[in-house]
Amino acid sequence: MAQTEYFDAGHRTCQGCESAMVLRWVAKAAGPNTIVIGATGCMYVANTTYYTTAWALPWIHTQLSGTGSAVVGTAAALKALMEKGKLPSEKINVIGICGDLGCADAGLSEVSNALTHTKYNFLILMYDNESSANTDIQETTMTPFGALTTFSPSGKQIRIMKYRWKKNMAAMMAVGHPEIKYVATAMAADPIDLYNKVRKALEIGGPTFIHTLDPCPKGWGYDPKYSHEIGKLAVETGLWPLFEIENGKFRLTGTSARIASGEIKRKPVKEYISRQTRFKHLTDEDIEYIQRKVDEMWEKWLIPGLLPLTKELPYPETAKT
Amino acid sequence: MVLKGDEDVEVVGTGTDAVAYALMLADVDVTSAYPIRPYGGVMQTVARLIADGYMKAEYIVAAHEHDQFEIVKHASAVGARTFVGSSGVGWLLAIEAIVATSTDRYPVVALIGNRALDDPGAYGVEHNDALMVRDVGWLLTWVDAAQEALDTTLIAYRVAEDPRIMLPVGISMDGAFLTHSEHAFKIPPKSKVQKFLPPYDLGNRKLHPSNVISVAPQVNEDWVTELRKQMDEAMKNARKVIEEAYRDFAKIFGRDYGNPFVEPYMVEDADVVMIGMGTVSKPIKEAVRRLRARGEKVGFLRIRWFRPFPTEDIIRYLSGVKVAAVVDRDYSFGSPFDGGAVFTEIRSALYEAEHRPLMMNFIGGLGGREITYNDAINMFNMALDAARKGKVEQRVIWYGVRE
Ligand SMILES: Cc1ncc(C[n+]2csc(CCOP(=O)(O)OP(=O)(O)O)c2C)c(N)n1
Ligand code: SF4
């Protein structure tokens, strides 16, 4: 593994920011022959202040919802220029980085469109701190059920403003884009797993997608020194299954694989939830509800974290007649 | 299609066809399409040219206009010559990327197939779509014929990519009247284009692993003023660069547009001059010819480049006339004298003139309604009447409104 850092000192992310750690590992895995595109969000604002960029790779900003478009434009241009002999032919990694709001909400159509462009090579990395963090922690479709944000406080009339269940983004990307060769989930607390996944995504070619879950001490409410621990708990409680889909083959990885094989038991979600102030208003019933949903994902889904069709229902009713 | 040799090839095609041929000649590397009429026509022809092997470019069908404009902005950042475009609401959907393209200084060239801003269900020509980007650092030009569309596209790349400019250019073309009407025009040979248009060179701003730079890092409040000032310098430089480009164009292609910024038509000794942009030139020029035959001293001034604005030419051609009447195929609600955008700009330019003419404004042809030769005659008659009386009774006239 390379010693050189390509995402280095010079950024202003919060202490314990897991998204910054993700970028560090992504940059390391990608190496110097890379162009990085970063959408508006914490990883733009905190990392690339004029005169003090953290990037030791060529880097360019794209608009909040522009990641899909930017990677396509970049990859297409490199292809055209190399084919016409206007640039020397070589493999250049194109990586687009977007937060959950930029990727899963605002830029979803661009990202989805990008993932169908199979003649271009790029990786879209969605770093998911489960909020619009840069604008002071607001709700997105990726904010988990019940979590407090500045747009979803707990009030006297309405205790739970964020009533919507988190969207299944990696699954959508994998299932909805039939020719995509690589989709994975990851997190900074398991850096080797993340590193390997980035390498695979970049080597396999075509459009690829990685979704990382990134604990954010500011938004989630915990002491920054626990970032890795919180990340690991998300996996250990089964809330965040780690997987990869390589050329259509699904595989759970790391702790998630060990849970699935029965080697280790899932921890109760309460262990994860009780560690963060964003869940402090939740009652035991709320937590039971979350537990039930997670149990359902592991026990009843065709593939945990990916395919919510239940195991009991392999055929539609009509198919039997 | 015959495209060999060093001779011009004469063809019949629409205004959007003409732009498509220019893109082929300019060897555009990346282009991105999204359907909306009347802009869509150009991409249909580009797609054909690519499918038939006449043109080699990465041709990307986008998810929507924001996607489209963001794609080319980033293709431009790694050194590709790009083309994009849209119409009406499409321009506005893309506005965020449009603004970033000029502030990041990428010389994208785009077609604006002018179209009304939609609701309720209007898609005929109006100029408000292009005028909405008037203040964000795009150069804007209006053409009135297919040949001019082809030529201007080549000129646009030359100007946009000039190191003194590095700003995007929007080429406006009246929906239907020019985008979809057929004209005879000449396709010049590639050899001439190569003499005129050097390869796109971003220099040390090219994003590439061998050039580790950060593009558009956050400047916060610290540097925005300086960046805007640099854009302003570039926009001001454009007046000189545009002149050079037209001069070289005339030398290499043998088509001389005279004054690049405005087209004066019988204005020299005119008492009344009508001013307009785009295809409204056709009926107005015809009216000028007929009225001249009757001894009326009338003329027409077509604005070709709207950004940068041809202030000097406006003063030069209009300061001596009795009445300057602007035909706006747009409107600017609540503007200083409740007139059109072009009227307001011209009024502002003429503030510096030694002899200010009386001014009238016709709001006409909105949403694609035709402005006929008879309409032009009517407008001239009103303006001539004001000239005789030495007084404008109604400053802004919504021409042909049904009460
Ligand atoms: C079109 C647009 N709308 C809103 C904003 C304001 N804005 C800046 S950063 C940001 C949050 C982005 O959230 P996310 O993508 O989740 O990234 P994070 O900040 O969490 O890293 C928003 C909404 C913007 N820059 N552009
Ligand atoms: S707010 Fe969260 S995501 Fe943003 S820099 Fe701080 S820890 Fe990282």
Parts with pLDDT < 50 across at least 5 consecutive residues of chain B = none
Into which percentage range does the β-strand content of chain A fall?
Answer: 15-25%
**H/E topology pattern of chain B:** EHEHEHEHHEHEHEEHEHEEHEEHEHEHE
Kindly report the oligomeric state of this protein: heterodimer
The largest beta-sheet of chain A arranges its strands as 4-1-5-6-8-7-9-10
* Radius of gyration of chain B using CA atoms only: 21 Å
Mean pLDDT of chain B: 96
**Estimated structural class of chain B:** alpha/beta
Ligands, ions, cofactors? thiamine diphosphate, iron/sulfur cluster
* Residues in helices of chain A, as a percent range: 25-40%
Task: Write down the overall mean pLDDT of chain A.
Answer: 95
Computed over alpha carbons, the radius of gyration of chain A is 20 Å
Q: Helical element count of chain A?
A: 13
Tell me what you see in this structure:
The complex is a heterodimer of chains A (321) and B (403). Chain A is α/β, with parallel strands linked by helices. Chain A is built from 13 helices and 12 strands. In chain A, the strands form 3 sheets. In chain A, strands 4-1-5-6-8-7-9-10 form an 8-stranded mixed sheet, with helices on both faces. In chain A, β7, α7 and β8 form a beta-alpha-beta unit. The longest helix of chain A is centred in the first third of the chain and has 17 residues. The radius of gyration of chain A is 20 Å and the shape is globular. Chain A starts with 17 loop residues before the first helix and ends with a helix. The mean pLDDT of chain A is 95. Chain B is α/β, with parallel strands linked by helices and 403 residues long. In chain B, the strands form 3 sheets. Chain B has a 7-stranded mixed sheet, sandwiched between helices. Chain B has a 6-stranded mixed sheet with strand order 10-12-11-14-15-16, with helices on both faces. Chain B is globular. The site of thiamine diphosphate (TPP) has 17 residues of chain A, from α2, β5 and α4. Iron/sulfur cluster binds next to α8 of chain A.
